[in-house]
Specification:
About 50% of the residues lie in helices and about 10% in strands. The protein is globular and about 75 Å long. It binds guanosine-5'-triphosphate (GTP). This is GPN-loop GTPase 3.
Length: about 300
């Protein structure tokens, strides 16, 4: 039995992971002769989703049961569930063995960001998948909410999370900006055309509400302030300067890696969805050796025969 391609969809809570999975599943079915069946797997023990699920971690363990039985909170419950999965990897293996090497699985993972940054459970699951032969077949897709990119500070924090996940998961990595339909095209283009995080901070960081603009605002207006107020303002100015130096250092770090880039995804635009799909395919050279799969119109699901 060969090994199918696997996409691990990760990212902060509410960033749009499940919607991404559903979008890809629906898009796969619109591809005519190249129609592709994305099998979506739910690996989030707390998830509620709308896609057709191939298999579901909640058949093994669910956060609700763990919270009730072990009196844990939602975060502790989720970490417990993922560790339970790690101890019961034969469940995952049995399910994965049902898929052939020309098939494609999208794994909808939990949104707790600590699972991709400092709790090693996802790394261990990935290591096991690598041992089972999926080493060259896996790509991680890190989903970040595009409404973040319109604010420089949030953009930088999203970039750091993406970088941290990339380093931690050690897989071919694609960052996807979800919810682009909610962001004005002009502001999105403005951000995406920046050549570096440092440039982004220089240009946008001076905007309203940023640390830099606060810094300008806080320049003392001598006549209007008492000595006490001036002292306070100077103290805050010094703090702003430090924050700015820290931000510049963080931006330089992002630029040094030169590896944080985002692919915008507008779920209402087929070209945008296609572009994301091609980027993830390219990351693992998916489909380069595959025969084109055709539709069999006599078969209910249309995947019964090659043309
Ligand atoms: N307009 C718009 N809304 C979106 C998009 N993606 C997600 N949403 C909305 O954002 C909310 C969260 O989306 P989900 O797909 O559930 O996000 P998630 O990352 O799976 O969430 P968790 O599993 O809780 O971490 C939902 O209300 C979605 O309808 C998008 O591309 N466009």
């Amino acid at each position: 039995m060969g090994r199918c391609a696997i996409q691990l969809v990760t990212g902060p809570a509410g960033s749009g992971k499940s919607t991404y999975c559903q979008t890809m599943q629906e898009h796969g079915l619109t591809l005519g002769r190249n129609r592709r069946r994305f099998h979506v797997v739910n690996l989030d023990p707390a998830e509620h989703f709308k896609y057709d699920v191939a298999f579901d971690i909640r058949d093994l363990i669910s956060v609700d049961d763990v919270m009730e039985e072990l009196q844990l909170g939602p975060n502790g419950g989720l970490v417990y569930c993922m560790e339970y999965l790690l101890e019961n990897m034969d469940w995952l293996q049995e399910n994965l063995d049902n898929f052939d090497d020309d098939e494609y699985l999208i794994l909808d993972c939990p949104g707790q960001i600590e699972l991709y940054t400092h709790i090693p459970v996802m790394n261990k699951i990935i290591d096991q998948l690598k041992l089972w032969g999926y080493l060259d077949k896996m790509v991680s897709v890190f989903v970040v909410d595009a409404t973040f990119v319109t604010e420089p500070a949030k953009f930088i924090s999203g970039s750091l999370l993406a970088l941290s996940a990339m380093i931690s998961l050690q897989l071919p990595h694609v960052n996807v900006l979800s919810k682009c339909d909610l962001v004005e095209e002009a502001s999105m283009e403005r951000v995406l055309e920046m050549e570096s995080a440092l440039q982004l901070w220089d240009v946008l960081g001076d905007g309203e509400g940023s640390a830099l603009s606060m810094f300008h605002e806080l320049r003392p207006k001598k006549s209007a302030r008492s000595e006490e107020e001036d002292k306070l303002v100077r103290k805050r100015q010094e703090r702003e300067r430090k924050w700015n130096r820290l931000t510049v250092a963080i931006c330089s770090l992002l630029d040094d890696y030169s590896m944080v880039g985002f692919i915008p995804l507008n779920i209402n635009d087929e070209d945008s969805i296609s572009h994301v799909m091609l980027t993830t395919d390219h990351a693992i050279q998916y489909g380069e050796d595959n025969e084109v799969r055709g539709m069999d119109f006599d078969d209910g699901d249309g995947f019964g025969a090659d043309e």
